[in-house]
Design brief:
By secondary structure, this protein is α+β, with helices and mostly antiparallel strands. The protein is built from nine helices and seven strands. The longest helix has 25 residues, at 191-215. Keywords: Signal.
Length: 380
């Protein structure tokens, strides 16, 4: 699906102040639980890789550390760690993903998925993914230095009410995360941090593969390479659509940091196909945040797929009176995802060159992409 918000139903919104934040004072000015500060000790609670709670917990209650949602305040004075912004961004994003799966565990049951023709193991797999995501919360908390705040959870809103709409959004999120992670892994300056991100990405790939095989009965292979999109924060910004405005702890850092607040990009809802070679109209879906085009400048739709990108000149001179049309490069394989942006230079060589987007075009399964664009989900 080509949409800046992954599902074009929810508004983009602002984030909150940047880290590091001050620790809570002794007068208990912050209405947070004391247990959240115990999480500052990386040895507190079950340790990922050493505890099966992150794999084989089958309850509906929130597993550790997802049951402790308050921010964790600095325990030492000093400047932030050199990679703290990256890990704070990732922890804030992980709270969204954990809550997405936790909400499904609470809302559905094994019978919910069996009744729509899915394997009996589907609900248990979702619980196991939820458990993995809880472990990711703890890993990311421990990557942030003791001189910076570790973001707490906000309140979230997700556009699903039934098993099929949940699984459709799950598939988009899991497959799109590959493009996000290929950019994010370029950010840490400490080599061990890059290694940790690759290890997490491999787990997410397993989640994606399970969904493609068991749920959608489709080829799970994504071609020779997942898509590399270098501006991870731009994809992260689209997930603000799932955050209830004003619900984040005020001590949380800006999410993501830095945040560009680019106009949202989607294909027109009447688009019949999003496969390579299809001609689509570009829709900027947030009326409060529209692009501004210089009538004397040439703009491009830049499509990222695999390890390459292709730039296609577009005519913006008559927009918004006339729609902007572009053809997805026909030479791309129908695998994985394509990430599209509108840029003022071929190849979108810097994040500042991007004027709208990104939008994620889901190629596997292709029918899911067009169904979601029209506001539904295909049958299983």
């Amino acid at each position: 699906m080509l949409t800046s918000s992954l599902i074009p139903l929810l508004p983009l919104l602002g984030a909150v102040q940047a880290a590091p934040a001050e620790a809570p004072n002794k007068d208990n000015a912050h209405p947070y639980s004391a247990e959240s500060q115990w999480l500052a000790d990386p040895t507190y609670g079950p340790i990922p890789g050493e505890s099966d709670i992150y794999n084989y917990y089958w309850g509906t209650d929130r597993p550790f550390p997802g049951n402790i949602t308050d921010p964790i305040f600095p325990t030492q004075d000093g400047p932030p760690g050199i990679d703290d912004w990256t890990w704070q961004n990732l922890l804030s994003a992980e709270w969204i993903i954990f809550e997405f799966y936790q909400r499904a565990v609470e809302l559905f049951s094994e019978d919910s998925f069996v009744k729509v023709g899915l394997p009996q193991t589907t609900y248990r797999r979702i619980q196991e993914i939820r458990n993995n995501e809880a472990g990711h919360l703890r890993i990311f908390q421990n990557q942030i230095s003791p001189t910076s705040v570790k973001p707490g959870a906000c309140r979230y809103q997700f556009p699903f009410t039934d098993p099929i709409s949940f699984l459709a959004l799950m598939t988009v999120l899991e497959i799109s995360s590959m493009a996000f992670l290929t950019g994010l892994v370029q950010q840490p300056r400490i080599a061990s941090g890059r290694g940790a991100m690759i290890a997490i990405a491999e787990v997410e790939t397993r989640h994606e593969t399970w969904a493609l095989i068991d749920i959608w009965k489709t080829d799970p292979f994504g071609g020779t390479s997942d898509t590399v999109f270098p501006y991870a924060n731009e994809i992260l910004d689209t997930t603000n659509a799932f955050i209830v405005p004003g619900s984040c702890p005020p001590e949380n850092p800006e999410y993501p940091h830095p945040r560009q607040r680019l106009p949202a990009l989607s294909a027109g809802k009447d688009t019949p196909s999003l496969t390579p070679g299809s001609t689509i109209s570009l829709d900027f879906t947030d009326p409060r945040n529209q692009p501004r085009f210089d009538p004397y400048w040439q703009y491009y739709a830049v499509f990222f797929h695999g390890v390459v990108n292709v730039s296609v000149p577009i005519d913006t001179t008559r927009w918004p009176q006339q729609e902007i049309w572009v053809t997805i490069p026909a030479n791309f394989e129908t695998k994985g995802v394509i990430v599209a942006v509108v840029a003022d230079r071929p190849g979108a060589p810097t994040k500042e060159s991007i004027v709208a987007g990104p939008g994620v075009i889901l190629e596997q399964p292709a029918a899911l992409a067009t169904a979601l664009l029209k506001g539904g989900a295909p049958g299983l």
